[in-house]
Amino acid sequence: MTELSPAAKAVLDALYMDGLNGPEQLMARAHAAAALRAAADQVLAVQWEGQIPANTEHQLGINWTRDALHAIATELEQSMTESRRERYLLALEIAERHGNRFMAANIRAELAKIDGGCPRRESNDGPCGASR
Length: 132
What we know:
The chain is mainly α. The chain has one domain (6-115). It has 4 helices and no strands. The chain has helices spanning 6-14, 22-51, 56-97, 101-115. The longest helix has 42 residues, at 56-97. 10% of the residues are buried. The model is unreliable at 121-127 (pLDDT under 50).
């Protein structure tokens, strides 16, 4: 798994991630990322409501804060996808080792969704068929 920045690690430490199983950890990361994005949007909203005077120094600070919060949220979301992808790759290896073609095909389809593409198929029917 990708090494997280100290800021992202601090967010996850605050969630007591060690006591959570895999799916719960993914959900906690998603919730943390959503909370950070909401906080980033609120920083900008406070400025536009006239609560912070519009000068260059404040604008730079607000923009930096918003960008930093979004960067941590993005890092958490990306680590969530990488972690999920790693688990699917391990499951695919096991399915192939045991000769379970059906399970392997399903796992490949899920990996394709994560990667933003369509799974390889024998036929051209379905949403990822001949229209590609």
